[in-house]
């Protein structure tokens, strides 16, 4: 039975009440308790630093050469918080409500409310660390809007918010490393968890098996290592790269979560993928990466396509009255700032109907011309320039846009060779984030005692669609403010547990299984590259489990993935050796896990016959082509239990909405 451990009582008081009553571990006992943290992105670095500061003995792992290279560094646009600096009607309740509605009523109320509550603390914490958030002239932190909201609550540091936040968390982590509270293992990849039961005085096993450690591979020497922990935290990020092409960092993968899943951790809502509407379109077969143009650009940019099908004119030759600002037309209340799932589907709909632009016709325009004029006029007004010429207005407008979004515009120009100050950008949706992940309860514990999941690695607070600027908020909420309390509630009962020797048979057995799998992979000596399998998997996933899914396609995808798996395990070619630095071997290991995950994602998508958020089942849409939810049959979290190769059992966590009553989502 799934127990989400949501505290009783009024929604607004649950977290306060929990904190007031959860068990604590005294400082002397904290020093005896060891915690393993997998991942040092925003979720992992904030957790490791905070737990180290609290006095626990922490070991942190990442596969990059430095925690600072975690994928979190790529985050551009910003981080949400209910500070209401703008006095525009924001509140904790409104952030909670927007997030539940934005997630299409497929997230847990209690978790989301807690997230909204701690959001303001995150900003204070980061400012105290010296994170250089953008400020107004008077010194107050500046805000902008992201999709799915009507207030301005997004804090940002130019277009490098993730980088600046990570530097803040990393500094705290480094401090704990130098104090000896955290031991850092870079270039180490966790390849399995180790589980064992407690023993009584007579050495008999008692109770449920708990997570007590990991097997990691030193990626430089290829050696396997065993590490004990009283608890293990997976902060290993999202799995968008299952689609091959995505905006994620190339190294992002599912391996840590997948190994835990195979050992008994349920996987929550695996099919919920976020497709981001503003990415640079695919330009050819040679690509292995897609680039995001931050959602912040939708604050000021206007999205349009020509009103005429197959229009081949240049954007500048298409007069205003022949342009279709389709988001403003279809969703007047939110306009260009509708949530990502809605904006992505609308772009696909226009392109499929023959209104796409660019040579591939798989793109729409994101246009800054109007914003440049609007800002230019304001600046001229501020500077007291009367009757400014169009040229002067433009010059000042460009300066403002440069100040706000300059690095993003530069990036676009470097990649496409087009100057976005002069011509509209071309954008198209791309895979960006995974709302699915390891199922966790209110305390962020997975279905394995002692194993936690934080940040993008868990099935998260975002339901079926994440609002922009909410991932950083969630990762840091989990690491700085939630886990320090909830882990104490578990570890308070572990203070008598002595560190287990890594010579224990459970460790020996786990290491043996990892070694055998690596040897099996290396022993295949087939003909096809790891990359070619990944690419083929990605194509199946994008075509059949991407922006739109249907029953027939999903069934085909499952059969194709099963076939791909057989082929992979009989014909993959991995050059090099085991006992050396071998990135092809690392990748093969990850792709093997992606293949299994892909199958589960399709199974989950097939089971969920409704449309909700990022999961659009073609069979379930309104007459206007909007996603049609089915609350009477699908108001639950799907938590999948691994039962053997290609076999899973579905557990359902019913979602109860006491406060934010589900309605058909409307942004009109
Ligand atoms: C281009 C881009 C822009 C974005 N912009 C924003 C934004 O503006 N606002 C926002 O809120 N969100 C944004 N996001 C989303 C956000 O960046 C991520 O969801 C978030 O940073 C994830 O943080 P994390 O700590 O959970 O994981 P990550 O930052 O992905 O870190 C994962 C860590 O786990 C480690 N790891 C993984 N597997 C293993 C293993 N097996 N063994 C050892 N270590 C392992 C890695 O080394 C790494 O340290 C953006 C995402 C992208 C792709």
Question: Main attributes?
Answer:
single chain, about 675 residues, alpha/beta, FAD/NAD(P)-binding domain, Flavocytochrome C3, Chain A, domain 1, Methane Monooxygenase Hydroxylase, Chain G, domain 1, 3 domains, five-stranded parallel beta sheet, five-stranded antiparallel beta sheet, binds flavin-adenine dinucleotide, SdhA/FrdA/AprA
Could you explain how this protein is built, in words?
Its EC number is 1.3.5.1. Keywords: Cell membrane, Electron transport, FAD, Flavoprotein, Membrane, Oxidoreductase, Transport. Its cofactor is FAD. It is a peripheral membrane protein. It is a single chain. By secondary structure, the protein is of the alpha/beta class. The mean pLDDT is 96. 37% of the residues lie in helices and 16% in strands. It folds into 3 domains: 11-272 and 433-491, FAD/NAD(P)-binding domain (3-Layer(bba) Sandwich); 276-431, Flavocytochrome C3, Chain A, domain 1 (Alpha-Beta Complex); 512-634, Fumarate reductase/succinate dehydrogenase flavoprotein-like, C-terminal domain (Methane Monooxygenase Hydroxylase, Chain G, domain 1, Up-down Bundle). It starts with 13 loop residues before the first helix and ends in a 14-residue tail after the last strand. The protein has 17 helices and 21 strands. It has a 5-stranded parallel sheet. Strands 11-15-14-12-13 form a 5-stranded antiparallel sheet. The chain has a 4-stranded antiparallel sheet with strand order 16-10-20-21. Strand 7 (205-218) and strand 8 (224-228) form a beta hairpin. It has helices spanning 14-21, 27-30, 42-54, 92-102, 109-129, 161-179, 255-262, 326-330, 340-352, 369-382, 390-416, 471-491, 505-524, 530-545, 551-571, 583-607, 631-634, and strands at 34-38, 57-61, 79-80, 154-155, 182-185, 188-199, 205-218, 224-228, 231-234, 267-268, 273-279, 302-306, 323-324, 364-367, 425-434, 437-438, 451-453, 528-529, 572-573, 636-644, 647-654. The structure holds flavin-adenine dinucleotide. Flavin-adenine dinucleotide binds at residues 38-44, 61-64, 70-72, 74-79, 161-162, 189-190, 235-238, 247-248, 252, 255-256, 292, 432-433, 455-457, 469-472, 475.
């Amino acid at each position: 039975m799934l127990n989400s451990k949501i505290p009783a009582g009024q929604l607004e008081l649950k977290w306060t009440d929990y904190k007031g009553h959860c068990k604590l571990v005294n400082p002397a006992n904290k020093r005896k308790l060891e915690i393993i943290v997998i991942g040092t992105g925003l979720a992992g670095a904030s957790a490791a630093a905070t737990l180290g500061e609290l006095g626990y003995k922490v070991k942190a792992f990442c596969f990059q050469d430095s925690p600072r290279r975690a994928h979190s560094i790529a985050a551009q646009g910003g981080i949400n918080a209910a500070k209401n600096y703008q006095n525009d009607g924001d509140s904790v309740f409104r952030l909670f409500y927007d997030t539940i509605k934005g997630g299409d009523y497929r997230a847990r109320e209690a978790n989301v409310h807690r997230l909204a509550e701690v959001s303001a603390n995150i900003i204070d914490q980061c400012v105290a660390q010296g994170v250089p958030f953008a400020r107004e002239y008077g010194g107050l932190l500046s805000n902008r809007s992201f999709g799915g909201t009507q207030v301005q609550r997004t804090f940002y540091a130019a277009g490098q918010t993730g980088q600046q936040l990570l530097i803040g968390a990393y500094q705290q982590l480094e401090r704990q490393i130098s104090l000896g509270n955290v031991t850092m293992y870079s270039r180490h990849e966790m390849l399995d968890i180790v589980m064992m039961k407690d023993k009584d005085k007579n050495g008999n096993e008692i109770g449920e098996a708990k997570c007590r450690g990991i097997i990691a591979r030193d990626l430089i020497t290829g050696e396997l290592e065993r590490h004990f922990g009283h608890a293990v935290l997976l902060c290993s990020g999202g799995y968008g790269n299952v689609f091959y092409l995505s905006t994620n960092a190339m190294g992002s993968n599912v391996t840590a979560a997948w190994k835990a899943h195979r050992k008994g951790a349920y996987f929550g809502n695996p099919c919920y993928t976020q497709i981001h509407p503003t990415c640079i379109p695919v330009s050819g077969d040679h690509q292995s990466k897609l680039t995001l143009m931050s959602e912040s650009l939708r604050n000021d940019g206007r999205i349009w396509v020509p009103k005429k099908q197959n229009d081949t004119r240049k954007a500048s030759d298409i007069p205003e009255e022949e342009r279709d600002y389709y988001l403003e037309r279809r969703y007047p209340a939110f306009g260009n700032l509708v949530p990502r799932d809605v904006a992505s589907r609308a772009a696909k709909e226009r392109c499929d109907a023959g209104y796409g632009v660019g040579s591939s016709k798989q793109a729409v325009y994101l246009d800054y011309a109007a914003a440049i004029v609007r800002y230019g006029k304001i600046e001229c007004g501020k500077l007291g320039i009367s009757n400014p010429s169009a040229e002067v207005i433009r010059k000042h407008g460009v300066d403002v846009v440069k100040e706000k979004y300059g690095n993003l515009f530069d990036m676009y120009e470097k990649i496409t060779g087009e100057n976005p100050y002069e011509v509209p950008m071309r954008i198209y949706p791309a895979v960006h984030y995974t709302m699915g992940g390891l199922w966790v309860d209110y305390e962020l514990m997975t279905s394995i005692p002692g194993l936690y999941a934080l940040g993008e690695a868990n099935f998260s607070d975002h339901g079926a669609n994440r609002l922009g600027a909410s991932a950083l908020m969630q990762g840091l909420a989990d690491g700085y403010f939630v886990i320090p309390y909830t882990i104490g509630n578990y570890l308070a009962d572990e203070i008598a547990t002595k560190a287990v020797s890594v010579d224990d048979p459970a460790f020996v057995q786990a290491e043996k299984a990892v070694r055998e799998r690596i040897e099996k992979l290396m022993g295949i000596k087939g003909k096809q590259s790891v990359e070619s399998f990944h690419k083929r998997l990605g194509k199946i996933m994008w075509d059949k489990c991407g922006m739109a899914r249907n029953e027939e396609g999903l069934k085909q995808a499952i059969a194709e993935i099963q076939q791909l798996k057989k082929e992979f395990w009989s014909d993959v070619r991995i050059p090099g050796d085991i006992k050396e630095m071998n990135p092809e071997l690392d990748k093969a290991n990850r792709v093997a896990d992606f293949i299994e995950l892909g199958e589960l994602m399709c199974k989950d998508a097939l089971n969920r016959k409704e449309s909700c958020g990022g999961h659009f089942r073609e069979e379930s849409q309104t007459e206007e082509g909007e996603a049609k939810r089915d609350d009477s049959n699908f108001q639950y979290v799907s938590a999948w239990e691994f039962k053997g190769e290609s076999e899973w059992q579905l557990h359902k966590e019913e979602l109860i909405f006491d406060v934010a009553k589900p309605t058909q989502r409307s942004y009109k």
